[in-house]
């Protein structure tokens, strides 16, 4: 799923950094240090946002592939 961040970064939303907030909400953080925008995926249905978040986690933890 492609998306464009406020900072102008474009890419797959699943490549964002998955973060679990203290309110037990899953959000995806922009990997750009200067941006760090948090997307709470509220624009997706709960089911869809869980899927996207789960995929982002899998990409983070899966393999030892260096993030390019
Ligand atoms: Zn950004």
SSE arrangement:
Layout: E1 2-4, E2 10-12, E3 17-20, E4 26-29, E5 38-39, H1 46-61
Antiparallel strand pairs: 1-2, 3-4, 4-5
The structure holds zinc ion.
Zinc ion is lined by residues 5-7, 9, 30, 32, 35, 37.
Structure in words:
The chain has about 70 residues and is α+β, with helices and mostly antiparallel strands. It has one domain. It is built from one helix and five strands; from the N terminus they run βββββα. Strands 3-4-5 form a three-stranded antiparallel β-sheet, covered by helices on one side. Strands 1-2 form a two-stranded antiparallel sheet. The chain starts with a strand and ends in a 7-residue tail after the last helix. The structure holds zinc ion. Zinc ion binds next to loops.
Q: Brief description of this entry?
A:
Helix content is 24%, strand content 24%. With 68 residues, it is α+β, with helices and mostly antiparallel strands. The radius of gyration is 12 Å and the shape is globular.
Shape: globular
Strand order of the largest sheet: 3-4-5
| Distinct small molecules bound, one entry per kind | zinc ion
Beta-strand share of residues: 15-25%
Biggest β-sheet, characterized? 3 strands, antiparallel
Overall domain count: 1
Helix content: 10-25%
Mean of residue pLDDT values: 88
